[in-house]
Amino acid sequence: MTAFDFELIRQGRVAAVSVEVAALDDAGRAKTARDLLAYVKRRAENHWRGDELSALAVATIGCVPSAAAAARILTGRWMSPGRDTVDAVVTTARARGVTWLPELVTRLADRRPTDEDGRLWAFIALVLAAEGLPAPATDWFVLGWLSDLGFPAEERLRSRPIAERLRTDPFLDALLPRVFTVAGAGERLTMWESSRPGGKLALIQAIAELAAEGRVDRDMLLRGCLGRLLHGDRPAAVRPLLALLSALAPAPAEVAAHAGDYLRLLADAPSPVATAAQKALRTAPDLDLDAVLEASKAVLRRPDKALVRAQLTWLDALARRHPARAADVAAALAEAADHPAVELRERATVLAARHGGATPVAVVAVAAGDDLPPPPPPVPAPPPITDPDELAEEVAAFYSGRPFAALLPLERIADAVVRLSAADRPALRAALLPVLERHRDGMGEHRWDPCCLCGTFTGVLHSATDVQQATARRGGWAALLAAARRFLALGEPAPDPRVAPPHRLLRARLAEIGMHAARPDVVPRLSGSTGSTGSTGLGAPAGRGGSADLVGSVGASAPVGSGGSAGQVGSIATVGLLAAPTWANGALDTAVLLDRLAVLGGHEPWPWDFTQALLRLPPGIDEPSAARAEALGTTAGARVAAWLRTGGLPSPRWHVETVSRRPRKHAGDYEHDSLPLLRVQVGTSAAATASRPPRSGAVTTGLSVAAPGSAAPAARGADAAEAESFGLLGSALPTVGGGTGGWHVLWPGLLPWHRGLAAAHALPDVAATADMDRRGGAAVLPMLAEAAGDPGPALPIAVAYGLAARHEADRVAALDALLLLAAAGSFDAETAGRHLGVLAAGGAVTPARALQPLRDAAAAGAPRTVFRLLAAALPALLAAAPPPRGTPDLLTLAAETAPAAPGPVEIPGLADLAARRSGSRLTAEARRLSTALGLKF
Amino acid sequence: MSYPRASLTGVSVVQQYRYLAPSTAGDGGVDLQTCGGPAANPRFFAGFLTTPAAAAAGLLAVADVARTRYFQPRDPASLDPVVTGSADRLRFESFSGCCGVYARLDALPAGLDGEVLGHGTTNVDVNPPLREALARIAGLDPLHLSVGPDDLTASTLDGTVVEKKVPLPARWLRGFAEVQVLSAGFDLRAELTAAEAGAFLRRLPGANDRSVLWAVPAGRSLRLTSRPVPGAVCLAGAGRLAALRGLLRHSRSLRVYGPPVPAGSPPVASAWELDTGALRLTLTLSPEPHRGFSGEGAALASLAGDDVADDAELVGALLSWDPTIDVADLAAAAGLEPGRVRAALAQLGTAGRVGYDVADAAYFHRVLPYDAARAERDNPRLVGARALAESGAVTLDGSAATVRSGDQTYRVRRLPDGALTCTCPWWAKHRGGRGPCKHALAVTIAAATATAGTA
Q1: Residue A291 with chain B: CB contacts under 8 Å
Q2: What confidence tens digit (pLDDT) does each residue in A288-325 have?
Q3: ipTM of the assembly?
Q4: Among A125, A417, B295, B356, which is most exposed with the fewest C-beta within 10 angstroms?
């Protein structure tokens, strides 16, 4: 006995293997069968195909005792039998007289859930055809059959007409009925290429041709189609079935024979199927009227307007044909009397009345005014983190979700890092380091993103846990702080207007924490009046000696440089960040800040932290708290007192500008094509006139020089007073098209009492959801609605944009914001509506998108707000020529909510449109609104 | 060319069905064939369906869920639904192949005109001709229904026997158990009329949408909202409600159930129930389309103490196929406090021996015709936790513990309310929303061992 030479398989020498196998005796075959299994296992990663696989197959079929044994060898992960393997298998099987080939084929077919490239299908089909065997029961074999009909694996067949091939197909009778039972098989009835005769429908036409010849059972096809349509499938699989049904062109009598199926499709199936069923049924004779009426009740409740309209017409015709049953038909017609589409309601009412039905009760009128639940009370911030392990969990959670998707976790972590690092840095390190290591990926800075805080935040965490790291990063922190001083405190124009001032403030605070982690022993202080530009204490704290100025500090002098141990009683390191919010929306209670300052005693606060804390205080003049702050007797206390007496951040002046699309720069300027035709932007400037020249940027005119109120000490000078506004007012507007890519959701919590300002900065991101089809930008709207303060024009404009957003999630967020604002009585519906109208008329946003959220708002109890918004939007929409798509629906909604209007309303352009002699839907809806408003036309 | 044949987690065994004949439906009635459970081919019901079209739509919905994978749809799943014959009603239950959707059709006394002949739970044969026939059932006259083979079928054992072998993944069984535990925490959130329900369901995104939506009651309907707020219901993968469509037009109302959610809640499960008066169809959706109920870990939270297991044995012996289980009665019969009875019922739920009906807010007796308890015991998370605890990876210190797993170190804390937290990415992602993580379980086991050792 000679051993089988496996090298022949590797070389793909099919004939040689065949000879060698034939020469084996029984014992040799048994041994080779075992060796073969070991051999393919050894080469498990080999991609088996071509001659190499054929040689393997010849050896396998020639040696193994059963189909199971053959399948064990030939069904490996990378086994790819195809047409090129067929001859080897069939010839060897015949030569050896193997009887288990059908079983082997079944096993191969069962082994795989799919067969993307059709190789396995071709292999199995050709083996079956060669042996005259029936098709296996696997679903994918049916799919493969259809694919092969469209594009045969055998090249010589490709040029032959599809009907001819189908007629002689060995699997036709077995597999054609299964096309209707395999999910998704309908999809493969259409051809990929349309150049050949019959185009994409060639196979469908061929099947119909064979049915006409009587080659296949026509009733089987009809029943199969209807059964599959009843059962439902993916839309892409349903369309070809509808095409097949229409190619079969069932006669009216055939439709009547399957009337039950057709009526079910009419009542329940997706719109295209129901429409086809309706069309077929209307030709059918002698339908059972009761069954039709029963189905009609379901049809008339469907939202598809065209289907319902056609059904009403059909019912009207039926009532005329069967006068004796008119009352029953009228009862069925009345089903549509509360259809959401008002024109269908009216039509149904008219028809029902014509056939003697009772006039259905009119739809309940909308209650006057809004009826909304009161806005939810503010939510307190969760308690501060006290345990290093808890901090580690929060950091892990921060990085496991979408980092920087919310401000509150960031604030809590920053606050805890400061305190816990000072209390016990080794313990913090032990707790945090494993988490930081686990989430190392994706923690770096994204340099292409000017707003990115990833590297900064990670740096803070590393600095807080490791002195060496902190020291190494000092240069970076100093640079960030210097930049913050230039752009925020000194008011130099920022290099990238996409980074809004509140965002710069956040970055400065993180840098400040990082810097202090490096020098825990140096507690910087806020300087008094130094008079020198740039040393107002808002700059880099660890810089020159100037920032350690002790002038004005009261009480104990700051502890300086007492070695490595940090966390002296009373310092920021023990108090935690002054700016840590007490409310979930980012607000900070004045009393809490004063408590923190009292504990802080003579220690100076960190400047950017202190700045943020002041911005989080409730605005308005608060004399009792100011007195309490002054009584602290510290510089910081005096600063807070002055802040509270001036009423905080001055109210800005708003500049609403509508910017047209910039001109095309060059032929390949693809960005130009994605830009909106119009964009509304809101800029701000300080209320007081500026002494500086306007900054660069489209709209801004300057920045605050003096805070309002006389309490601002003149001694502080122009620069110091200017710092009061922290560069938040009058920053340059970004160019249209930018947007921050999601960072704007952090800003409402940084300006919790100045949501108009936060909204102005966030507006480009929100607008892009509507006019650039971006996703997710409107998520900021409910946050802004939950913040406090003057919404300004920016918030209603942002809501208007959000209502017309491309994606449902954004529209829903805008709806949430609208309802929250309306419930609080702080929604400027006129501003929102006016801008929605102008933008829609100018082609920048799609008003039809706003219909559903506005409808929902009306249903949720804000019909008056919706009406006011629509009344403000309609003049611009009606003035456009032609009015944009969706205008009739908005007119309908306005008519439906008009009873909630606060008083007489005049909508310019409406009367003219209503008086126009036209049968268009626009005119009809305009008339309806005019009637609702009580106007004559 | 690659064909990933990812083995699903856990042990897969083969489920073998042997029906005496295929189930059929037609003008003569619906004959459902059964196998397994209390007998080889038990017979539960013979009588009439009072609302045949609605019942057919409901059965079809249950069958559809059983054969669908909503997440990563590949070859259809093929486990048959199960039916439970209670004292006065039939409950058809199924679970989707992706383990993310649980469907139950309750044929209430008003929907049945006939006799429940036997009690217990068994598998029901569903085949393509039956599905097609069910889709064609219309009309208003009562239709005959039999569940289980009649004497004729049983006596003529000719060649019509249907045998099916399908893999029974352990995760499918775990999901069946988890969903009972989760739905026990549901409350009614909204009730919509059929018209409002239709309008709401139709506007939802289609089958390919995987997003997590939230809905709050607004006016007479529900409206979508962008964020979880108190009173909201989570609707994850709205396309998974497609199975409700068929029954919608026979329904009077849609009721929506969910657990209480705080503001900012992570996604949670929800139940959507259509009521026709004679039938109730409930779909329970997992918190996210890619999450099967099997991994929710709700049952792990009550990692059984010995006393709960003993109570469960006692309570389990007292169950008698009542349509709903009355805790007070059961407590009196068992001589246990109601609280202990509830804990015991939750434990029985994890073993597949009771189901939970949100409409009645009560458990019902149902014994899955599978060994479901084994699946829960072999939960991969629990297996991993045991391995960690046994290898001494847990170091307890006070209310916290350090767990070393491979080269990673995790810290587990016990909160004042007894819940455990961890620093692992899995816990960070779900924050307890999917039960305790492997490390927290390991700490529980280690702590129990330590207590037992010192006692």
Answers
A1: 138
A2: 898 899 889 889 988 888 999 999 999 999 999 999 99
A3: 0.87
A4: B295
- Tracing tokens 């009665």 back to the chain, one arrives at B329
In B96-200, beta strands by DSSP E: 101-107, 112-116, 120-124, 143-147, 162-169, 187-193
The set of residues, in sequence order, having a beta carbon less than 8 Å from that of B249 and lying 6+ positions away, is A267, A268, A298, A301, B194, B198
Which residues of chain A neighbour B422 with C-beta distances below 8 Å?
A: 393
Backbone angles phi, psi at A409, to 5 degrees: -60, -40
Amino acid at A584: A
CB contact under 8 A, A861 and B218: yes
Residue numbers in B near A815 (CB within 8 A): 223-226
Judged by CB atoms closer than 8 Å, whether chains meet at B138 and A264 is answered as: yes
Whether B423 has its CB under 8 Å from any CB of chain A: the answer is yes
Find the helix or strand (DSSP H, E) in which A887 lies.
helix A887-897
Q: How far apart are CA A478 and CA A180, in angstroms?
A: 71
Number of A to B CB contacts under 8 A, please give it.
Answer: 132
With beta carbons under 8 A apart, name residues in chain A contacting B75. Answer: 113-114, 139-140
Closest chain B residue by Cα to residue A227: B132
Q: What percentage of residues in chain A have a pLDDT greater than 90?
A: 42
Task: Using alpha carbons, select from A750, A229, A284 the residue that is nearest to residue A762.
Answer: A750
Verify whether the Cβ–Cβ distance A397 to B195 is below 8 Å. no
Query: Residue A2, exposed/middle/buried by CB under 10 A (0-12, 13-18, 19+)?
Result: exposed
Q: pLDDT by residue for chain B (455 residues), tens digit each? A: 333 333 334 445 778 888 988 999 888 889 999 998 888 889 999 999 999 989 999 999 999 898 888 887 666 667 889 999 988 899 999 999 888 999 999 999 999 998 888 888 999 999 888 988 888 887 778 889 999 888 766 555 555 788 887 777 777 788 888 898 889 889 999 999 988 898 888 888 776 777 888 999 988 889 989 889 888 999 998 889 988 988 988 899 999 999 999 888 889 999 999 999 999 999 999 999 999 888 888 777 665 456 777 888 888 888 888 888 888 888 888 888 888 888 888 888 877 888 999 999 999 998 888 776 666 667 788 889 989 999 999 999 888 999 998 889 999 999 888 888 999 999 998 888 888 899 999 998 888 888 876 65
Task: Give the torsion sign (CA, A449, A452, A456, A457).
Answer: negative
Nearest CA in chain B to A228: B132
Note the pLDDT tens digit of each residue in A814-838: 999 999 999 999 999 999 999 999 9
Q: Which of A227, A438, A813 sits opposite B226 (nearest CB)?
A: A813
Chain A environment of B207 (Cβ under 8 Å): 234
* Interchain contact, B211 vs A809, CB within 8 Å: yes
Nearest CA in chain A to B431: A397
- SS3 state of residue B259: coil
For residues A438 and A423, give the distance between their C-alpha atoms in angstroms, rounded to a whole number: 24
Q: Which residues of B touch A114 (CB under 8 A)?
A: 3, 74-75
Query: Nearest Cβ partner of A268 from B195, B224, B245?
Result: B245
Closest partner residue to A231 (CB to CB) among B135, B227, B413 is: B135
Q: Find out whether A120 and A111 touch, Cβ atoms under 8 Å.
A: no
Contact B3 A390 (CB under 8 A): no
Compare CB distances from B219 to A298, A584, A859 and report the shortest one's residue: A859
Q: Is B6 on the interface with A (CB under 8 A)?
A: no
Q: What are phi and psi of A674, to 5 degrees?
A: -90, -5
Of the candidates A372, A334, A370, A382, the one whose C-alpha atom is nearest the C-alpha of residue A354 is A334
Q: Which helix (H) or strand (E) holds B29?
A: strand B29-32
Residues 6+ apart with CB under 8 A from A137: none
3-state secondary structure A674-697: HCCCEEEEEEEEECCCCCCCCCCC
